[in-house]
Amino acid sequence: MRDFVPRLAPVERQRRYRADGLWTDDTFASVAAEGLVASRNERARILSATRPYDGTVGDLADQGAQLAGLLASRGIGTGDVVAVQLPNWAEAVATFYGLLRLGAVAVPVVHIYGHKELGHILRESRARALITTDRFGSHDYVAELADIDGPLPDLELVVMVETQSAAPRVGPDTVTWDDVLAFDRPFTDLVTVDPDTPSFVCYTSGTTAAPKGVVHSSRSFIAEMRQGAMQRAQVPLPAGSVMPRGNLSGAPVGHVAGMMTMLGPVMAQSSLHMLDRWDAGLVLRIMREDLLTSGSGATFFLNSLIDHPDFDPSVHGPLMSRVGMGGSPIPAEIARRASALGISLVRSYGSTEHPSITGASHGEPEVVRTCTDGAPMPGVELRLVDDDGVEVGVGTPGEILSRGPELFLGYADPSSTAAAFDGDWYVTGDVGVLDEAGNLTITDRKKDIIIRGGENVSAAEVEELVLRIPSVTEVAVVAAPDARLGEHVCAFVRAAPGADPPSLDDVRAHLEAAGLARQKWPEELRHADDLPRTPSGKVKKFVLREQLRAEHSG
Hints:
Largest sheet: 5 strands, parallel
CATH superfamily of the domain at 11-217: ANL, N-terminal domain
CATH topology of the domain at 11-217: Rossmann fold
Structural class: alpha/beta
CATH architecture of the domain at 11-217: 3-Layer(aba) Sandwich
Radius of gyration: 23 Å
CATH class of the domain at 11-217: Alpha Beta
């Protein structure tokens, strides 16, 4: 990312963010150096059938320093890009701690991504090193690397976390995590990093066929984490609540939500509790035993807990008296059930590009907390505009434009950055309505994405691959309501004349062969003789979405 040109806020807003305490000159290198010392004796635990871990934050910080030392010995240092594709394991946490100390640019890769996505990310980010594993669940990461089409000219080193003895090497420059732990020159320097330069590149599937690299600096990401802490501290816990000793999270470290959990001990003295596979029964048991909270994030997490037969309102309710929801649509029924259980639910709205745009507070009335996405976060400004770019009034739907202290620097692909901004404003592609009090409610999306359990799925990516099936002449992929996941992928398929339409199993087999992550496969297939269209012939996907919503609500 050395040739990346960041998109910075105008000078007058930079001054305001500093004056309001939203921006400082701290960097993740300096914050990590201090925070990991303060959190050194805090517990760090990973619940995993494959690689369980129970130790301290300090132990993981030490492993991170060894990894940073090994990378430095290979000439990889401040400003260099290192990709990380690991599940929620101790090695993943240690890796990020090491990269922060080194001042390297971390590129978290969602562990479910296949060779198609991984190849694109490694090439576009120009990663010099990749930290990965040989296998997790059904994923063979060694095979995935071998299946990447074309060369990876910038990749010099692969660090392999082995789950099998003598795992296959992916090239001559492969070392193992055991080599990391044996490295005797840990990196302990305090590096100097410009807080406005790239620190993380988070790849997210949006409206384009390939994942887009969202570039954040130390300044933007630290502002995001401080904002969340400010909001959580606003309102005391209600009577009858139990003060949790920590939060048990299943959000993957390849996502912003998982990174927030992992970076908690860096920003504040806190323990760390994560699991690599979401298991509601296990989460409920650990919550009870260790007085932890859980359930925040995408609707799926809360839903799975309160639906589980082991959920005990008298035990788990007081531990999860506050839950924050975001990442996917929140069904009204979930809000109603949560309130009946004494759980204060708050909604928020954001994206990888602008992580916290609005958010409700636990001190606000229930109708605000559960029926709106809250007011703008500190320092955040909104504009809602019509199709002509004219600002709309209260109660009128408009496309959401935002700006604030935690706004990203731009995309790894500069052409995508240019298309995402209207002057000084980030064009979200989402549609919402503001009420008289300034609370925002998301009503629709211009961006053609499906948010499945908090995971972004690009309709364009799925459509491109489904269209390669010989019997398919047209396909429209849209979001269908899902009581468990918020949304799932539904494909409307028009068969070629005289051809037998493919079955759902046919489509899934085709996508598996193409290397698409399983979570992006359609879970519903509809056959159509034709599709609703505009006069210009464009498929009116909003009609398909409305049809699915009507069927779901009926």
